[in-house]
Amino acid sequence: MDGNFNENDISHVVAADKAHVWHHLIQHKPFETNDPRIIIEGKGMRVWDQKGKEHLDAVSGGVWTVNVGYGRESIAKAVYDQLIKLNYFAGSAGSIPGALFSEKLISKMPGMTRVYYTNSGSEANEKAFKMVRQIAHKRYGGKKHKILYRDRDYHGTTIGALSAGGQLERNAQYGPFAPGFVSVPHCMEYRAQWDLTGEAYGKRAADAIEEVILREGPDTVGAICLEPVTAGGGVITPPPGYWERVQEICKKYDVLLHIDEVVCGVGRTGTWFGYQQYGVKPDMVTMAKGVASGYAAIACLVTTEEVFDMFKDDASDPLNYFRDISTFGGCTAGPAAALENMRIIEDENLLDNCTAMGTYMLDQLHALKDKHAVIGDVRGKGLFLGAELVSDRDSREPMDEKRVQAVVGDCNAQGVIIGATNRSVPGFNNTLCFSPALIATRDDIDEIITSVDKALTKVFG
């Protein structure tokens, strides 16, 4: 830490936080007798809390965001320079960083052509849902309006996004939800719904989507929204054959394919986008977290020219264009930060590092699995990995969530921050989650693995 805060300053900050801040995803009752954790500073892979304790951050800011690590002065300078020149103008007009980042982003996404700026992943997904609904009204008399989503996937916090959410505990107490959203089965082979394996399982899981389309009526289904790798639902990598079959089904029934890259986008899996691992050609792609590595708020909805053209015509109807605005989608800090973020990823070869370190970490997690019987499955892509804990390997009985959280807590006490599925999928909040920054080294990975090894030994013996 740089020493800019003395003990009295920190005490005041803690008191102000306890008195006034409503934290995300936290029950505040314990704060009546305990202090919340306040992160004071970050550098590289590490952060320091108000007590001066150093932590190795293995989850990139807690929610898979800080892809290039903390303390990047060049990003801060790019934001500063842009804000002095022009901080904001509504998205009905353009800006220099908005134009240049869109050009750079599209260069990494063959087949995609248009970027719509928003300020969060939830909002980006809402925009996509609105486009699907407006297309239904413009072209299909409002009938082809249904949007499919997958069990265990997650697409955001708004009522609309929760309507497309496959995590029942995240949805609990927030209904009723918007109509016209329909679930399809997950594709998790470890929790197989059919007595098949490998490619046969992948194709069968995709065929289940076709069954839902036929049940609902192909003339009523406008789009399907899927994560390339399911994130908060358990870090679920799709089985072979799955994505190819999904693409075929979408083309067969004229269903728009919307890929939610809010977590996987901008390098997390070792390619610029997760869908590029599987040869998918989407119609719409949403992204947020890693776009600027958390240095400024930015999210994007990217579409093909075909989708864009559905809203570009000379008809006399004044309602034909996409009548939507994102106020803070007009902030220039986001694209300015995103441009520099992307430059860093390119110049430092972080996609290659992500692939290499991801392979190394996956191997180390498999070694932990050989050592600890409570690890039932290890999976992931790039530096986006999960280890599912079970109480019995043969039956695959999920480990109790409290004991999973005990592992997280012990790692934290050691000075390593890891994640876990948490109050998301009833009975299956049992996966340890890892998403270290793309700058991670073998030494960083070793420290994470050692911490998990010690925690598993302490919690389970």
Automatic annotation (TrEMBL):
Full protein name: Aminotransferase class III-fold pyridoxal phosphate-dependent enzyme
Cofactor: pyridoxal 5'-phosphate
CDD domains documented for this protein: OAT_like
SUPFAM superfamilies: PLP-dependent transferases
Organism: Mesobacterium hydrothermale
UniProtKB keywords: Aminotransferase, Pyridoxal phosphate, Transferase
Domain of life where this protein originates: Bacteria
InterPro entries in UniProt: Aminotrans_3, Aminotrans_3_PPA_site, PyrdxlP-dep_Trfase, PyrdxlP-dep_Trfase_major, PyrdxlP-dep_Trfase_small
GO molecular function: transaminase activity
Family membership noted in the UniProt record: Belongs to the class-III pyridoxal-phosphate-dependent aminotransferase family.
